[in-house]
Amino acid sequence: MLTIGLTHYLIVSAVLFCAGVFTMATKRNAIGILIGVELVLNSANVNLVAFDRYRAGLMDGQIAALFVIVLAAAEAALAVAICMNFYKNLVTVDVDQGDVLRG
Amino acid sequence: MSLQVGILWLCVTALPALAHEEAASGVGTGVVYAVPGGWFEAVMFYVFAGTAVLSAIGVCVSRSVVRMATWLFFALGAISVLYFLLAATFIAAIQLIVYVGGVLILLIFGVMLTSQSPWVRFTPSRLNLAVAGLICVGLLVCLSSILLEADFGAPLSTTPGVTVEAIGRRMLTHYLVPFEIAGVLLMIVMVGAAHLARQEKQ
Q1: Which of A14, A22, A63 is nearest to A43 (CA)?
Q2: What residues of chain A, 16 to 45, have a C-beta less than 8 Å from chain B?
Q3: What is the per-residue pLDDT across B65-122, written as a single tens digit (0 to 9) for each?
Q4: Which of A30, A66, A78 sits opposite B94 (nearest CB)?
Q5: What pLDDT score does B26 carry?
Q6: Quick check: B43 contacting A, CB < 8 Å?
Q7: Which of A17, B6, B53, B136 could disulfide-link to A43, CB 3.0 to 4.6 Å?
Q8: Complex ipTM, two decimals?
Q9: Partner residue facing A21 (CB), from B72, B110, B136
Q10: Coil, helix or strand for B37?
Q11: Which CATH architecture describes the domain A9-91?
């Protein structure tokens, strides 16, 4: 209990992942869904760094986490721009209203 | 802002303590940032892991987007402290700079620019909440039971401190191709985001 091991970090990461999935599934605001995605990516990063610390120790996990951070930043920038366009066209960010392409 | 300052202060005060434990155990002569074990690491882990988990649950349950962003702020800060505890100081600094300083501000700008009032609410249906909650709790139970059962073998006794120099060297030699691809991707994203967000000229 007092010795912090790999499992502690993995369980924290599992909770973060489930919280992110729940957020993505229930929020109807496009920006809210984006926040859920950020939580999921962060939980993956915690996993990578924890495995790197306790198993490999070769900093490969840390470099993978760096790449994930780069991709998450790029994704957030692009997704916010898409939200702006969504809002400009539909005057709402409710993703349920975005059914213009429905046949 | 005050949270960032507080986290940085905690890290600055925490690292010498961890390094001191390392010096006492007499292992390693190079740069060693942290060593597992001891009550200090346990207290720090439980405090900040609890903060991260509670903030993530706050993100789930709050209805207003502004509150979700605020909870995400606390979650990201606590996760960066977890990186410090994992001896990944560079990743922790990058987490603070890129996530807390960049992505979160971007999200808050998005909230401000896309809602008529900052307290705009979208209430999900009860069926939606029930199904999503059931699936997520089931997933969490499955993951936790697997993680508690799994045997990952003996942990490494000590970790050599990963310096920024080492990360840079490895990234520009072993990971050169992904590094270049990430650079090209960032440029494409920059151009694409500017194009998407551009005002159309009438």
Answers
A1: A14
A2: 16-23, 25-32, 34-36, 38-39, 42, 45
A3: 889 999 999 999 999 999 988 888 899 999 999 998 889 999 988 888 886 655 566 7
A4: A66
A5: 38
A6: no
A7: A17
A8: 0.91
A9: B136
A10: coil
A11: Orthogonal Bundle (1.10)
Q: Which of A1, A2, A3, A4 is the best mutation test for B, with the most CBs of B within 10 A?
A: A4
The string of pLDDT tens digits covering residues A4-33 is: 888 999 999 999 999 999 999 998 888 999
Q: Which of residues 44-103 of B touch A (CB under 8 A)?
A: 45, 49, 52-53, 56-57, 59-60, 65, 68-69, 72, 75-76, 79, 82-83, 85-88, 90-91, 94-95, 98-99, 102-103
Domain ranges of chain A: 9-91
Alpha carbons B83 and B128: distance in angstroms, whole number: 34
- CB neighbourhood size of B50 (10 A): 12
Nearest in space to B62 (alpha carbons), one of A35, A100, A60, A4: A35
Residue type, A31: I
CA distances A74 to A45, A66, B54, B81, Å, are 16, 13, 27, 23
